[in-house]
Design brief:
There is one protein chain. The chain is of the alpha/beta class and 394 residues long. Among the domains are: 146 residues, Response regulator (Rossmann fold), CATH 3.40.50.2300; 125 residues, Rossmann fold, CATH 3.40.50.2300. The chain has 14 helices and 13 strands. The protein is globular.
């Protein structure tokens, strides 16, 4: 005959069972990502709106630093320069690339535009290394050619200040692209065509929040050797702060790590092992992207990967489904802006202020990546006609 349990003992057993059940469920996604605050919900709604626009149209950013969210909007009318300039004849331009695929793509488009003006163009460091030594030597080589102008594509002011002083002394007009340094002074570029690195970092922040419904645990790779790249990472982190149920941690590396598959893979693998809850990785450029994809695949974990810029590396990766999304700018538009600044400088006209250089962005997915593996915004907005007017071609 079984003896009845005392009522107090039954209650204690029931309480213990409830505690055990609760503990067993503590590894759920809901526990890793606590319920969002009202601010977190608002962040998801705002991010989703921006991403929806950037997937179907061009999302306009008013400056190349951090843009107030209230200032972001679709590009429906021309928001760029409107003052025409007389194109001088018989000029020559040397272009120095950082050597990365995106830099080379911009340089190739710039060369086409320069040659269409009847000018001579020389491409330097195409496919070359992005090391300090190589960039300084490349700019020095450009100076020895004695061109009328030099365009530096992701060649930071802080790296080539000495060479920029030498170029100014030689009467060479210099234009930077993808560098957030000041312009006009000694050891600085004379003008700038601001690149979208910082804006794309901001857009990637919105994309990750929207895609994860505000519950992403992120590792973001940061290369402080390139100030413009670092600015994009800072913008990404700023946006993620509004997501109450998101976490973000930076992974420092240098371009020398990115271009070494073994180093890059080792850095990412160590970061994944140290952060078992991470479900998202953001890469600031396509250098090292294949190593990141390989490290994630080797981990066996379900991790979303995002990067900036659409090129011959990220395009195929997006088509394969290795990436969840790519935030991109248009290399041809950027080329137009850098060449326009060069024309104005050689014509003796003041360069266009930064706020008049529209930064246009787009989010590409697996089903929308172009067959040419590069962003082409011309089909979404006819900016080429606008520059044709400025240069007296239309």
């Amino acid at each position: 005959m079984m003896r009845a349990r005392p009522k107090g003992l039954s209650a204690l057993i029931a309480l213990l069972l409830m505690v055990l059940i609760s503990a067993c469920g503590s590894n759920s996604d809901d526990d890793k990502n606590p319920p969002q605050s009202a601010g977190g919900i608002a962040a998801v709604e705002q991010a989703s709106g921006f991403v929806k626009t950037a997937e179907s149209d061009l999302l306009y950013f008013p400056n190349s630093k951090f843009s107030n969210p209230d200032s972001l909007k679709p590009m429906e009318t021309w928001l760029g320069p409107t003052k025409a300039v007389q194109v001088p004849s018989g000029k020559s331009v040397a272009l120095v690339s950082c050597g990365a695929p995106s830099c080379d793509d911009v340089m190739a488009q710039s060369v086409k535009l320069i040659e269409s003006l009847g000018w001579a163009a020389t491409a330097i460091n195409q496919g070359g290394a992005s090391t300090v030594q190589n960039l300084t030597e490349s700019l020095s080589s450009a100076i020895t050619l004695k061109p009328d102008a030099i365009i530096g594509i992701a060649v930071p002011t802080q790296v080539v200040g000495v060479q920029l002083t030498q170029a100014k002394a030689a009467g060479i007009f210099t234009v930077s692209l993808a560098d957030n340094g000041a312009t006009g002074g000694d050891g600085q570029y004379d003008a700038a065509a601001r690149y979208a690195n910082a804006s794309l970092g901001q857009l990637l922040g919105y994309t990750v929040i929207a895609d994860s419904d505000g519950k992403a645990n992120v590792l973001v790779i940061d290369d402080t050797g390139f100030p413009d790249i670092h600015a994009g990472v800072e913008n990404f982190q700023t946006i993620l702060k509004d997501c109450s149920s998101c976490t973000v941690k930076g992974i420092p590396w240098q371009i020398t790590d990115a271009i070494d598959p073994t180093k890059a893979s080792g850095i990412v693998t160590a970061a994944l092992n140290a952060n078992p809850d991470v479900d998202t990785i953001v890469v600031p450029y396509t250098n090292g992207l294949q190593a990141v994809i390989g490290a994630v695949r080797a981990s066996g974990r379900d991790i979303e990967i995002y990067c900036k810029e659409l090129d011959q590396i990220s395009g195929p990766a997006l088509k394969r489904g290795d990436l969840s999304g790519v935030a991109a700018s248009d290399f041809t538009l950027v080329a137009y802006q850098s060449v326009d600044q060069t024309i104005r400088g050689l014509a003796g006209v003041a360069p266009i202020p930064e706020e008049q250089l529209p930064i246009l962005t787009h989010v590409f997915r697996q089903e929308t990546v172009p067959t040419i593996d590069t962003a082409d915004f011309q089909s979404l907005f006819d900016y080429e006609s606008e520059y044709a007017k400025l240069w007296g071609k239309k």
